[in-house]
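User: Could you check the structure of this?
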Amino acid sequence: MKPGQFEALIIAKNRLNSDTFSLELKAPGLNLRPGQFFQIRSGDTYDPYLNRPVSAAGYQRSRLLLIIRKVGKGTSLILKKNAGDRLLMLGPMGRGISPAKKRTLLIAGGIGVAPLYFLAQNLYARQIPFSMIYGVKNNGDHILKTKLKRISSDLVLAYEYGRGRKMTALDALKDIELRQYDVVYACGPEAMLSGLQKMKINLPTYVFCEGFLGCGCGICLGCAIKINGIYKRICTDGPVFNLREIDFNVRSDG
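Assistant: Sure, the predicted structure tokens are below.
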């Protein structure tokens, strides 16, 4: 499906934690796959000038789920909208994925849970068993816990600060018996993905990458990333890539 510009009606808005909200939109006619995203106009002026990229977190019966964390002016303006308001959107962008019927492990860090939640729903609907590790900074920041517990074979919740056993998502991964899985999908901060790469786990691992997605359609080259020695664009060539092929050092220095 080619990306197009459209207005979507906000049906519902819910606070998920202190700085993260879900928006449910009426958006009929979309053909969406996990990993795809939208460019959203944040306000009625040119400040901020650029649209904000937001991953699809779910799509059922013409209802699009977005999960947005408030991090700056653009996302703050979007989250001033309420049910009954409309969002100007461009998309769907990116290639997205159609997962194979294999035993799957998902690894989410922070807001990276959003696109993986869409993938989790896809796996569940296709009766593909999966487990999930979901890490956040602070105990209490996890979102969608009840829904993820219901559809996953096993859900491990990790946090770095708070009472009890503190650990990152990658710490939790060390306790997992990887032989019971065939493939791994991960999404989170670049530091988490780089750390996962350094662990060199012996499983095909695909990651949902983030970057400076200025235009979202491959023109600005702000999201260039080096894959197998060749620069690719996260927005048009990805955002899902084989973890072993990514050169994070080149991207960080460049």
